[in-house]
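Let's sit down with a protein and look at its sequence and fold side by side. Which protein we use is up to you, so please pick one and set it down. Label the sequence line and the structure token line clearly, so we can match residues to local backbone shapes. Go ahead whenever you are ready, and we will take it from there:

***
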Amino acid sequence: MAAPDRLTKRNAIRRENERLILAAAEKVFAEAGFGGATMQLIADMAGLPKANLHYYFATKEELYRKVVQQIFEIWLHAAESFDKAPGPVEGIGAYIDAKMEISRRHPFGSKVWASEVMHGAPVIQDYLETTLRDWTEGRAAVIRRWIAEGKMAPVDPHHLLYMLWATTQHYADFGHQIETLNGGRPLSAQQWARAKESVKAIILKGIGATPAQADII
């Protein structure tokens, strides 16, 4: 086998192992917390030898920070709608869609973030004080611009963002409660679609940015 082929195969194996490790770590950290999680538990969940974890991540804290960074980067990507949208109907509407879809597809990552913050962010406080603060101020500036342009009511940008986070992440962080109230079943694709439309309709109307013909369910 040619050297480039071997390199390609090794890279593919590395990416797959990292994917397995991060998916397993999300679930273990979400269920056991940082203190209760162990590298052995994560290795067992990933179906890999413990030595493999230490090859990719030297310590539990390094792996934990990677899990937190990954969910935050996914959220950052969802927020690109703010920068590209002409107004709040498009920007906030797309952001709600994206954030709720993340709650559907990455519930464990959201739970890890929530648990970390509720415990005073002992591991990622520096991340909150830098990356999250900068991101929040950037989105607040966009909201203020929309307000100045008369495209939405004059609301406090920070409290609007807190409401958006709380509402969209509720579907991940309190997923068990939602399933219980849904007859013990996860929301179906149709129910997720209705939930997104309902949340968008309620929030956009609340900030005076309801489209001319909104589909309110």
Notes: Residues 213-217 have pLDDT under 50 and may be disordered.
